[in-house]
Amino acid sequence: MIEVKNVVKKYRKIIALDEATFTAKEGRVTALLGINGVGKSTALKAIMGLIPINSGEILIDGEPINYEVYNKIAMVPDVNTIFPHMTIEEAFNFMSIYYKNWDNEKANKMLEFFKLTKDKKINELSKGNKARVKLILGFGQKSKYLLLDEPFSGIDIFTREDFIGAMSGEFIEEGQGLIITTHEIGEIENLAEDVVLLEEGKVIKQFSAEECREYYGKSIMDMMREVYRNA
Predict the structure, then answer these.
(1) 152: domain range?
(2) For the chain, what is the domain count?
(3) pLDDT by residue for the chain (231 residues), tens digit each?
(4) Boundaries of each ABC transporter domain copy (predicted)?
(5) In this structure, are residues 122 and 86 in contact, taking their beta carbons and an 8 Å threshold?
(6) What is the pTM of this model?
(7) Are 53 and 8 within 8 A, CB to CB?
(8) Closest Cα partner for 40 from 65, 77, 72?
């Protein structure tokens, strides 16, 4: 389980995370949602140990981020950080060297799903295809936890729908935990199992999307409207 406990992150006078507390369980998809600038990307970067926090604690299966824990967690960022001058095949080879759980078979399967070929140079790809490669590099790591920051940005709606459908059936590993931030809330309605709502760096609600649907007949968007109107 990923535990974020009373985390504060400040950028000078700006408080990006304000005593944020939430959990993300293994084997479940957690949607981290809110309007722009509420701290979603900051939270993912803090979990990955990419930025220092001012106070609080983040634990991965009871441990703080360390070298061994990094083998359990991976992130698909919302910016292009992949290897621009490599071909896709060269990027796969690089990943196989540096990530012990890298699954080349899975990466190739996803490559086929997205109708891409290994010989393409990454910097010559369209924005949408670069986003596809980022997803392949993230899922190919077969990490216990995978953080996805606006993963569908730049991907056309039809491919998004097909991929979201394939995620639960083919690409998410058994027992793998995902945290996903997205503005395409309607498209992840049937994928998300738990939801964390952020407002100005604070967690204002964490709830089970399954319970909302089953017991209250409400969608994630219905609950968001209700929570934010009363916040």
Answers:
(1) 2-230
(2) 1
(3) 999 999 999 988 889 999 999 999 999 999 999 877 778 899 999 999 999 999 999 999 998 888 778 888 999 888 776 777 889 999 999 999 988 889 999 999 999 988 888 898 888 888 888 888 988 999 999 999 999 998 877 777 777 777 887 777 778 888 999 999 988 788 788 888 999 999 888 999 899 988 888 888 888 888 888 887 776
(4) 2-225
(5) yes
(6) 0.88
(7) yes
(8) 77
